[in-house]
């Protein structure tokens, strides 16, 4: 039965040139297909011969294979040598055929086979190998979970990939230590589980590090949030409010955090702390990213989030970003930082403003009620799995109150998502937010309203003119902090494109 082609596009990143087809349609499940050319037995024998010659010619050191800074130079050397050998073996070969053979050699010898092509697709967020008996599955930005047309040869091949990943981070995966959590050279996070712990077979999950991260323009355009909401978050961020981003797994908490970071002034020192490097900020920001490290096979050398959090306070930060708040000791240090004048941003697993308060006050986090007042704004993310869309679900604040002589914290939901209209609507007036911002900034309510309107107009202009890549968004924000009146004036008179010029 012929499968309908829903979408086609080319992968051109990472030195690869491959065509992707999304097939399916009515009555058919969608499938992700990489258009692969069959390699004849004689050509396969020639490729094997070239492989052996390349191994003897290149003399690649272990350091080159594990250092992200040298791997690109190694790929260039590899490509040149492979091109020379192919030309010697097959004089007059067409460039298109030569490029295909080089690409095949690169993915087999320097990478993870066909997984390398999937890693080079910017539209994929997750890659999952379940076993050698099932097709690889991927999570596509547009189409959700899809089965691919790639099936790995056998369990030994999957295990070889595990060993390659483990060697590059100086670790091992064995029957005694059947779990591996590591980063690829591309920054992508991989998790491996050996059989029989994974009863189907050796399992690999790769969460991709975004090469082209979401920006505020994307979130406005795809209706994740409105320009009005992001103007409020921008205003709160500019004036050093403490912001928590809540949501369930895969709801877009870290993406929202990343989207809002360019709102920070360029003169402020930013320290980010993550398990996996996911944040990507514009160049103009004064930013120091820190990531945790797992212990070596002897159980030594671990650097956890608490270590980095405590150390960050000695680095004179103006802003501290914590990838995810999970434990009591992390929360204690983080809330202490809020109360000592640092501006803090973090994510937490909770699906509403009231649930965030519950989550923070109960084990395993257990933050006392009197400390929660340090949080100025709580933004809750939501993922509609049926429609595969992410939305800002609620925006709220924490209010301190007395009940039976006991200090408690109550939620005040300022904005709430209305699913029937797919819009964020005003739910309650802010009780604390503007009063505190007015006190800290010296601005009157009318001046705050004017500032919010100007920020909203800038965001609407960016959305209308598709100013969406992180460098362009960063350039607008940078110029705003250098001269906000100039930026607002240029946008009002329709000359905003000048702002993107150096």
The assigned CATH architecture of the largest domain is 3-Layer(aba) Sandwich
- Uncertain runs with pLDDT below 50, 5 residues or more? none
Class from helix and strand fractions: alpha/beta
Beta-strand residue percentage? 15-25%
Report the major sheet.
Answer: 9 strands, mixed
Number of helical segments with 4 or more residues? 17
Taking strands numbered 1, 2, ... along the chain, how are they ordered across the largest sheet?
1-2-3-6-5-4-9-8-7
Q: What is the 3D form?
A: globular
Instruction: Find the CATH superfamily of the largest domain.
Output: P-loop containing nucleotide triphosphate hydrolases
CATH topology of the largest domain: Rossmann fold
Rg on CA atoms, Å: 26 Å
Task: Give the N-to-C terminal Cα separation.
Answer: 55 Å
Number of domains: 3
Number of strands: 18
């Amino acid at each position: 039965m012929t499968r309908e082609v829903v979408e086609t596009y080319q992968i051109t990143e990472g030195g690869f040139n491959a065509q992707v087809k999304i097939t399916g349609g009515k009555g058919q499940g969608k499938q992700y297909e990489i258009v692969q050319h069959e390699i004849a037995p004689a050509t396969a024998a020639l490729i094997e011969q070239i492989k052996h010659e390349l191994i003897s010619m290149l003399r690649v050191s272990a350091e080159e294979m594990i250092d992200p800074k040298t791997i690109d130079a190694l790929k260039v050397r590899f490509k040149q040598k492979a091109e020379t050998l192919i030309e010697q073996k097959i004089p007059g070969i067409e460039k298109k055929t030569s490029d295909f053979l080089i690409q095949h050699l690169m993915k087999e010898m320097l990478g993870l086979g066909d997984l390398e092509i999937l890693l080079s697709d910017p539209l994929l967020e997750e890659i999952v190998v379940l076993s050698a008996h099932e097709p690889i599955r991927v999570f596509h930005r547009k189409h959700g979970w899809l089965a691919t047309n790639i099936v790995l040869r056998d369990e030994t091949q999957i295990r070889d990939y595990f060993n390659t990943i483990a060697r590059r981070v100086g670790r091992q995966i064995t029957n005694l230590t059947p779990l591996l959590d590591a980063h690829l050279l591309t920054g992508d996070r991989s998790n491996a589980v050996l059989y029989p712990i994974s009863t189907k077979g050796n399992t690999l999950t790769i969460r991709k590090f975004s090469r082209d991260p979401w920006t505020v323009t994307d979130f406005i355009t795809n209706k994740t949030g409105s320009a009005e909401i992001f103007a409020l978050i921008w205003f709160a961020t500019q004036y050093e409010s403490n912001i928590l981003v809540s949501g369930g797994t895969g709801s877009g908490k870290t993406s929202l955090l990343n989207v809002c970071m360019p709102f920070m002034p360029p003169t402020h020192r930013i320290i980010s702390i993550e398990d996996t490097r996911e944040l990507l900020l514009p160049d103009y920001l004064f930013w120091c990213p820190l990531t945790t490290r797992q212990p070596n096979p002897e159980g030594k050398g671990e650097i956890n989030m608490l270590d980095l959090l405590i150390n960050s306070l000695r680095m004179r930060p103006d802003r501290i970003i914590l990838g995810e708040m999970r434990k009591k000791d992390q929360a204690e240090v983080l809330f202490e930082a809020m109360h000592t004048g640092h501006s803090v941003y973090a994510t937490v697993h909770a699906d509403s403003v009231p649930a965030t308060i519950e989550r923070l006050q109960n084990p395993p986090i257990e933050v006392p009620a009197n400390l929660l007042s340090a949080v100025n704004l709580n933004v809750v993310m939501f993922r509609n799995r049926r429609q595969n869309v992410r939305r800002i679900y609620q925006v709220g604040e924490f209010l301190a109150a007395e009940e039976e002589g006991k200090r408690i914290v109550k939620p005040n939901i300022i904005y709430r998502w209305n699913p029937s209209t797919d819009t964020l609507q005003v739910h309650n007036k802010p009780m604390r937010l503007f009063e505190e911002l007015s006190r800290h900034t010296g601005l009157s309510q009318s001046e705050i309203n004017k500032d919010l309107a100007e920020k909203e107009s800038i965001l609407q202009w960016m959305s209308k003119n598709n100013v969406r890549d992180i460098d362009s968004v960063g350039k607008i924000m940078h110029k705003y902090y250098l001269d906000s009146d100039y930026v607002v004036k240029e946008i009002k008179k329709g000359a905003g494109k000048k702002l993107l010029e150096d």
